[in-house]
TrEMBL record:
Name this polypeptide is given: Polyphosphate glucokinase
GO molecular function: kinase activity
Entries under InterPro entries matching the protein: ATPase_NBD, ROK
Similarity remark: Belongs to the ROK (NagC/XylR) family.
Top-level taxon in the UniProt lineage: Bacteria
Organism: Luteococcus japonicus
Pfam families xref list: ROK
NCBIfam families noted in UniProt: PolPhglucPhase
Keywords of the record: Kinase, Transferase
């Protein structure tokens, strides 16, 4: 059995768990530490080190997969919205490897969730193009074709009817405007049919906290592409990061 540690760095918490990659499940309970403020790379790597230490016995010298709320280009962070500005331009993979003394893979959080759903969750066994969307404060996206990730897509920002899509269709907009499920579904309909026209995917997977209430809005959408709720919920990022770290061992 291969057990690899996945860590999810978010704006409020840094969470980690060892992942049984045969099953796509946590091998131990998740461990969480509040995100330090300010969330500089130096402060965050210290917290990541504490999480690694917490699980040291379970993971041995296995690689570590880490998600960040930012694009990751060949291990480098070109811009950062939710953590300290000092992340911008950071050679993050090298920085973490040097500080932690082990193999590290850094991946965008939505991309990690998408990989997890393809390997173990709602998209398992789907051939062709899978688009995962996470509906929340904004709209995060991941595109995977036959298991291969197209990294760092920001398709929450495509223009739909003259608007940045996530400013009309994110869960936060539903809550701020007190939209009914059917009113919100009309906005989601325009978003997903535009995505359908541009990418012709084989499957949409819908994640984010609101996906637990998928029965209230997914049946209202009329699309040619099947659309299903994510299965792994808030475990997806950690599982996907661990899976990718194992794939990329170097």
């Amino acid at each position: 059995m291969s057990t690899v540690l996945g860590i999810d760095i978010g704006g409020s918490g840094v969470k980690g768990a060892p992942v049984d990659l045969d099953k796509g499940e946590f091998a131990a309970d998740r461990f969480r530490i509040d995100t330090p403020q300010p969330a500089t790379p130096e402060a965050v790597v210290d917290v990541v080190g504490q999480i690694i230490e917490h699980f040291a016995e379970a993971i041995g010298d296995a690689p570590v997969g880490i998600t960040v709320p930012a694009p990751v280009r060949h291990g480098k962070i070109p811009m950062m919205a939710n953590l300290d500005d000092s992340w911008e331009g950071l050679e993050a993979e090298k920085f973490f490897e040097d500080k932690l003394g082990r193999n590290v893979t850094i991946v965008n959080d939505a991309d990690a969730a998408g990989l997890a759903e393809v390997q173990y969750g709602a998209a398992k066994g789907t051939e062709g193009v899978v688009i995962l969307t996470t509906l929340g404060t904004g709209i995060g996206t991941a595109i995977i074709n036959d298991g291969i990730l197209l990294p760092n897509t920001e398709l929450g920002h495509i223009e739909v009817d003259g608007h940045d899509a996530e400013t009309r269709a994110a869960t936060s907009v539903k809550e701020a405007k007190d939209l009914s499920w059917s009113e919100w579904a009309e906005r989601l309909q325009r978003y997903y049919e535009t995505m359908e026209m541009l990418f012709w995917p084989d499957l949409f997977v819908v994640g984010g906290g609101v996906s637990k209430k998928h029965a209230k809005f997914l049946p209202l959408l009329e699309l040619d592409t099947p659309i299903v709720p994510a299965q792994l919920q808030n475990k997806a990022g950690i599982i996907g990061a661990a899976w990718l770290a194992e794939q990329r061992k170097h």
